[in-house]
């Protein structure tokens, strides 16, 4: 009824009268939704167009293709751009469109076919176990993620991810809480450590290990494996192995009577409630042939001194400062509101990124005149294939916190800004400003320092006037 009163027209009054006189279903907009308004031939009310503020209307013009924070501004994206497009009459997922406004109304610079490079962990199947859960994003969920796969796992207080190993190497980032890790190395040395939010671990291929939630709330972490075809279901698990080995063989292996093993688990335990452990010192194995590993399988990533940029912070962890991590390199990046992870590319590996906080957009330049823009919110996974140019722009009102992960031993990238400054002036100006020498001089004076500023806060975001001599 609120919908009908909002129009205050004779048509509305007639429709109201019809509703009062009949209980039958009428072809009138009885639901407060854009589709119902449009099907009834009525204009969208201001709350759906946000009047002149909204870019999602036929009259909006934006030659700069500026970012839109549809979530923060509570906008419902529609496929209008610079006088083109049309309204939506069919079914429409408004919540999903708010998360990906640049798919609904792409920048005019997008062109051609580019594979999907975004997946939300919210769309991944959750496996629920005793005191925990797990979900994964692999090449089966995100076809472009051919190099890396990921698992998001939660273990409550004292809950164990049982002793196991993988064909693939495992890299992990602690999202929250505390976790104890155990492992043995290739030489039989044991390793134990207690980790907190922002810490990493890395287990090379075949290294057996376990994980256990500590503290009152246990832990949640992100696992990354160096093969996009990885499956959490295909790990080698202690209880599962023994359940599928003849008891006579188990008896011989441990030199114990068969009845000792009468109550072994009938299959994998996977995630289960365990006894809460004592301190590392109390739990340290002490048999006569026990030895500690000479390798360090953990690293305090957030405890690293960051590189401070004009628009955020960068921490890089690879084999240079975490020597055991031979197949995975990573960066933890913070991008302040209004800032941008500068235009760049990675020559040695695909970039697998995970958004911990904030809202951002990435345009991927795939050569051959093709490019596509994707939007990301917390819990999203993104892929940028090796050597494809891209940026990450903060489009929200809070900092972006993200991980950049690579199947590589070292982190490497090329900065577009630095490349320009390291190239002869005449060559740069002839390429970009052949017919505009005045702005070419302004451009050169900006880039000639060849400064690499991984996260850039432009002068416009600082309230400083632009250097450009031309008004758009």
Regarding quaternary structure, how should these chains be classified? Answer: single chain
What class would the helix/strand composition place it in? alpha+beta
Most strands sheet: 11 strands, antiparallel
CATH topology of the domain at 120-300: Jelly Rolls
Shape: globular
Helicity level: 10-25%
Number of helices: 12
**Fraction in beta strands:** 25-35%
CATH class of the domain at 120-300: Mainly Beta
Mean of all residue-level pLDDT scores: 90
Uncertain regions spanning at least 5 consecutive residues: 1-30, 468-472
Spatial gap, N to C terminus: 46 Å
- Rg computed from alpha carbons, rounded to a whole number of angstroms: 28 Å
- CATH-scheme architecture of the domain at 120-300: Sandwich
Number of strands: 26
CATH superfamily of the domain at 120-300, by name, is Jelly Rolls
General description of the model:
By secondary structure, the protein is an alpha+beta fold. Among the domains are: 2-104, no CATH class; 120-300, Jelly Rolls (Sandwich), CATH 2.60.120.10. Helix content is 17%, strand content 31%. The protein has twelve helices and 26 strands. It has helices at 2-5, 10-21, 34-39, 46-49, 94-99, 101-104, 238-243, 247-254, 280-283, 416-421, 425-432, 437-447; strands at residues 80-81, 84-85, 118-120, 126-129, 132-137, 149-155, 159-165, 170-184, 190-195, 199-203, 209-225, 236-237, 271-273, 298-300, 307-309, 312-317, 329-335, 340-345, 351-357, 360-365, 371-376, 380-384, 390-394, 400-406, 414-415, 455-456. Strands 4, 5, 6, 7, 8, 9, 10, 11, 12, 13 and 14 form an eleven-stranded antiparallel β-sheet that branches. Strands 3-22-19-24-17-16-15 form a seven-stranded antiparallel β-sheet, with no helix packed on it. Strands 18, 20, 21, 23, 25 and 26 form a six-stranded antiparallel β-sheet that branches. Helix 11 crosses helix 12. The chain is globular, with a radius of gyration of 28 Å. The chain starts with a helix and ends in a 16-residue tail after the last strand. Mean pLDDT is 90; it is low at 1-30 and 468-472. It comes from Xylaria hypoxylon. Residues 1-27 form the signal peptide. Keywords: Manganese, Metal-binding, Signal. Its cofactor is Mn(2+). The active site is at 404 (proton donor).
């Amino acid at each position: 009824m609120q919908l009908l009163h909002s129009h205050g027209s004779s048509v509305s009054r007639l429709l109201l009268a019809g509703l009062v006189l009949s209980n039958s279903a009428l072809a009138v907009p009885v639901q407060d939704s854009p589709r119902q308004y449009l099907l009834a031939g009525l204009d969208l009310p201001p709350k759906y167009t946000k009047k002149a503020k909204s870019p999602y209307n036929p009259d909006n013009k934006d030659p700069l293709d500026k970012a839109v924070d549809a979530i923060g501004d509570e906008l419902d994206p529609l496929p209008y751009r610079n006088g083109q497009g049309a309204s939506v009459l069919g079914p429409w997922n408004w919540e999903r469109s708010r998360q990906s406004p640049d798919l609904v109304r792409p920048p005019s610079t997008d062109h051609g076919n580019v594979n999907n490079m975004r997946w939300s962990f919210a769309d991944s199947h959750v496996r629920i176990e005793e005191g925990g859960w797990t979900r994964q994003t692999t090449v089966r969920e995100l076809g472009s993620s051919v190099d890396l796969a990921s698992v998001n796992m939660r273990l409550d207080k004292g809950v164990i991810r049982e002793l196991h190993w993988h064909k693939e190497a495992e890299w992990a980032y602690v999202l929250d809480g505390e976790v104890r890790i155990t492992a043995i190395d290739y030489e039989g040395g044991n390793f134990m450590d207690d980790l907190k939010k922002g810490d990493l671990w890395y287990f090379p291929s075949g290294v057996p290990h376990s994980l256990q939630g500590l503290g009152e709330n246990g832990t949640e972490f992100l696992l990354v494996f160096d093969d996009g075809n990885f499956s959490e279901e295909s790990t080698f698990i202690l209880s599962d192995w023994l359940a599928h080995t003849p008891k006579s063989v188990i008896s011989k292996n441990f030199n114990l009577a068969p009845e000792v093993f009468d109550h072994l688990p009938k299959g994998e335990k996977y995630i289960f409630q365990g006894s809460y452990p004592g301190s590392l010192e109390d739990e340290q194995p002490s048999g006569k042939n026990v030895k500690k590993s000479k390798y360090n399988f953990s690293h305090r990533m957030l405890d690293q001194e960051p590189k401070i940029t004009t628009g955020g912070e960068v921490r890089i962890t690879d084999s240079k400062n975490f020597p055991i991590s031979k197949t995975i390199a990573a960066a933890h990046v913070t991008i302040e509101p209004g800032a941008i992870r500068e235009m760049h590319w990675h020559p040695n590996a695909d970039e697998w990124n995970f958004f911990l906080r904030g809202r951002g957009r990435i345009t991927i330049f795939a050569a051959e005149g093709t490019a596509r823009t994707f939007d990301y919110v917390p819990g999203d996974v993104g892929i940028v294939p090796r050597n494809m140019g891209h940026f990450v722009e903060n489009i929200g009102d809070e900092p972006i916190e993200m991980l950049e992960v690579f199947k590589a031993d070292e982190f490497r990238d090329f900065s577009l800004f630095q490349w320009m400054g390291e190239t002869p002036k005449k060559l740069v100006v002839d390429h970009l400003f052949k017919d505009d020498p005045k702005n070419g001089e302004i451009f050169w004076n900006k880039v000639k320092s060849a400064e690499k500023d991984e996260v850039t806060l432009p002068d416009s975001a600082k309230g400083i006037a632009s250097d450009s001599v031309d008004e758009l």
